[in-house]
């Protein structure tokens, strides 16, 4: 694995890439069989190769009445059975996301959008998945009592 990270006054960023080989990766593989109307999956140790990257950045875009940060992130993973060349099961698709974080004293707000791309690099007896986007919004107010720190919040998650 290799990567780099940096922090400047209003910018934080990191990026890393990886390539890993496993002699005995434990994969949960769909057998293609059914037992009492349930699909059977078996744990198998396989030789495997993984490669990918992840990156994230946080950028201060406003700081007069409160602070506003832009957050960007992304990751990508590919994994295959080294003996057969077939994709390994249950590997996440490429994902990208962006968010805005605002904070003013005890109040904070967040808007976040995350997109997962379609996954069509799938193992035998596994279904591909369509891409989808999630949007999350959070409003938060932080306060203290003599013995407890409290967070009162409203969170909305939409698909």
Mean pLDDT: 91
Domain tally: 1
3D shape? elongated
Strand content: over 45%
Structural class: mainly beta
Say how many strands there are. Answer: 8
Q: For the record, give the distance between the C-alpha atoms at the N and C termini, rounded to a whole number.
A: 33 Å
Give the biggest beta sheet. Answer: 8 strands, antiparallel
Instruction: Tell me the number of helical segments per DSSP (H or I, 4 or more residues long).
Output: 0
Oligomer: single chain
Order of helices and strands: EEEEEEEE
Poorly predicted segments? none
Strand order of the largest sheet: 1-2-3-4-5-6-7-8
In helices, the fraction of residues equals: under 10%
- Rg on CA atoms, Å: 21 Å
Can you characterise this structure?
By secondary structure, the protein is an all-beta fold. The protein has one domain. It has strands at residues 2-8, 11-35, 38-62, 67-81, 95-104, 107-116, 132-144, 149-158. The protein has an eight-stranded antiparallel sheet, with no helix packed on it. A hairpin with a 2-residue loop joins strand 2 (11-35) and strand 3.
List the helices and strands and how they pair.
Elements: E1 2-8, E2 11-35, E3 38-62, E4 67-81, E5 95-104, E6 107-116, E7 132-144, E8 149-158
Antiparallel strand pairs: 1-2, 2-3, 3-4, 4-5, 5-6, 6-7, 7-8
Could you list some keywords that capture this structure?
0% helix; elongated; mainly beta; 159 residues; 72% strand; 8-stranded antiparallel sheet; 8 strands; single chain
């Amino acid at each position: 694995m290799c990567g780099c990270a940096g922090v400047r006054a209003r910018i934080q960023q990191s990026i890393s890439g990886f390539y890993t080989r496993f002699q005995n990766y434990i994969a949960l593989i769909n057998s293609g069989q059914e037992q009492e109307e349930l699909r059977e999956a078996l744990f198998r140790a396989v030789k495997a190769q993984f490669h990918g990257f992840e990156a994230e950045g946080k950028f201060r875009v406003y700081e007069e009445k409160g602070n506003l940060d832009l957050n960007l992130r992304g990751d990508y993973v590919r994994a295959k059975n080294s003996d057969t060349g077939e994709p390994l099961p249950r590997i996440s698709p490429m994902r990208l996301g962006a968010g805005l974080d605002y904070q003013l004293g005890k109040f904070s707000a967040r808007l976040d959008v995350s997109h997962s791309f379609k996954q069509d690099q799938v193992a035998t007896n596994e279904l591909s998945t369509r891409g989808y986007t999630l949007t999350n919004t959070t409003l938060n107010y932080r306060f203290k009592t003599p013995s407890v720190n409290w967070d009162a919040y409203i969170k909305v998650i939409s698909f």
